[in-house]
Amino acid sequence: MNAAETLLSAGVDTAIAIECDDEKVSYAVLRDRVSRAAGAWKTLGLQPGNRVIVFAPDSVDWVVAYLGAIWAGGVAIGVNPRLSMNEFAPILNECEPRFVWCETEQARALVAEARTVAEIVADGPGTSNWATHLAAAEAVAPLERATEDAALWIGTSGTTGVPKGVVHAQRTVTNAHSFACGILGLTAADRLYASSKLFFAYALGNSLFAGLRVGATVILDRQWPTAERVEYMVEKYRPTLLFSVPTLYRKMLQTGVARRIAQYGIRHCVSAGEALPLAVRQDWREATGHTLISGYGTSETLCLMLFSDDDSGLMRPTPLTEVRHADDVDPDVPQRVWIRHSAVALGYWERPEAQADGFRDGWFSPGDMFLRHADGRLEYTGRNDDMLKIAGQWVSTLWVEQSLASVCGETLHQIASVGVSSADGLTALAVLAVASPERRSEARQRMDEGIATLPGHRRPRWVHWLDELPLTPTGKLQRGRLRALHESAVAVS
């Protein structure tokens, strides 16, 4: 098979495949452009298995270059175009790409830094001119690959350490639409819009791949998402399926965007990327009349593997997803689970320890922990090191964060909880928080009130008020740095 050919096989010729800015591309045109891009890649010297980084804002050209590389037998890797050269350099060293495809802005930075031995493919001085090669290229047939051959890589977010390269096989796209079809009722008549960008597995798998797989229309945006930008995109393009993240849903509620976009015909709103607080789910339903569907997926699964559509937050497997757990573990103890689906990755690039820990016989076990309930549903409790034993009882830092965030409401901008060692050698909780602008005093008061309502074993011993919390380049919390921040705060207090 060829993953790019599979993705483009369902769309009716005249149907619109992608809309971005004022550009609309039909499936017939997209297939032609991708096959010609593959011809351009072959002219440039791409060999089967060569890696191609796509380092640019989302666009139709992004999709053409990305799928064209796969069509030609290469391995495509989307990378955050907002990374600095210092942040980009380790990725180059990790994956050793044959080419880096980018736009003029990124090309200038790469040429100026001289950080890569890869061939830079763009339009500008010091690069292989993409427009020239594309204009002269002839369409080529998709190169057939074994189903287990690599088709694409996705970088993990790096929330707990150094990002890893996740290698996905050609077959990863085969059922990329199983969640969207089985839970959201996705059809070719739908219009999908993800506020997250295509270098995220969330947007790539659940919006672009799922949409193309059924011949629907996928809406892309070059600009970085804000609540106001989402409102603009929804009003202009009228998506029927919206994919976003809890932080942005909260911002849409705070700014009134949620109520305003409710009139534009969105059928389902999906939340993923981080845990969805109950308060956000309830407030969204009150503001829009829609229930947020929360999903769980990882870079290693490409698509959402677990979902919840009610206030319990308890999760069930998405269609075609198998979940297993260790039978000899006490069900009242949080544990890792194993997941199998055709979208699960082959594994990590040159990370043998992580590979052995997370992948086994087609199954993948994320580092996150879950509690099993009697009805078979799963309760997400955070990562392995987010589960703590305090006063003989299990405590999830996620539970503490969500409880306090709910009490603090709009006075709180960010919150994180981490397990630390107290002076007596026992495990205790520390909270690191950032107040909303001009609301620090009120946030402190609400935080104190919220802590007082928690059971004793869930009460943090320290609360540190900071100006900001550390984030990855993709905007996720860098939990691996929290303990050091706590220690620094204690040292100066």
Describe the structure.
With 493 residues, this protein is an alpha/beta fold. It has three domains: 3-171, 3-Layer(aba) Sandwich (Rossmann fold); 191-338 and 363-383, ANL, N-terminal domain (Rossmann fold), CATH 3.40.50; 391-492, 2-Layer Sandwich (GMP Synthetase, Chain A, domain 3). 33% of the residues lie in helices and 24% in strands. It has 16 helices and 28 strands. Strands 2-1-11-10-12-13-14-15-16 form a nine-stranded mixed beta sheet, sandwiched between helices. It has an eight-stranded mixed beta sheet with strand order 7-6-5-3-4-8-9-19, with helices on both faces. The chain has a three-stranded mixed beta sheet with strand order 26-27-28, sandwiched between helices. α15 links the parallel β27 (427-435) and β28. α2 (27-44) crosses α6 (130-136) and α10 crosses α12. The longest helix is centred in the N-terminal third of the chain and has 18 residues, at 27-44. The mean pLDDT is 91. Residues 15-349 form the AMP-dependent synthetase/ligase domain. GO terms for molecular function: acid-thiol ligase activity. One of its GO terms (biological process) is secondary metabolite biosynthetic process.
Summarize the structure.
Pfam families: AMP-binding. By secondary structure, the protein is α/β, with parallel strands linked by helices.
